[in-house]
Amino acid sequence: MNVILQCKKLFVSKHHIGRHMLIHSNEQKTQCHICKLMVADVKSHIDYVHGKKEKEECRECGIKVKHLKAHMNLKHGGKGKRENISCPKCKKLMDPTSFRAHLLIHTGEQKTQCHICKKMFSTAKIAKRHMSDVHGKK
After folding, report:
1. Single pTM value for the model
2. Domain extents for the chain?
């Protein structure tokens, strides 16, 4: 598994990383004729975002996704086996589903707020633990 630190996306293949990295480069971008968004690779953008491909249901978690194989590799470590990822910042090992939330700890980005004291947290899990420890709420 490979991670892009700018956007916290996970990739299995180096081919997909190279294509994705165009998003983060200063190379010329082209406007999508459907949504008017400026993108590095219009064909891939149209296929992925506006494509007609039907969503398939994941047997592991039940959510519907357009790219089941990529979902299985990223979220479930391939065919039912979860492959742990090492955080490039602190080297902590974790499963792919926890990885994006974990990276928020290093970026300082805070997305979840305690509705009682208004303190901000990087993840809902940390906010829930705060609610329990500080406010006695479950």
Report:
1. 0.36
2. 2-17+30-83, 110-138
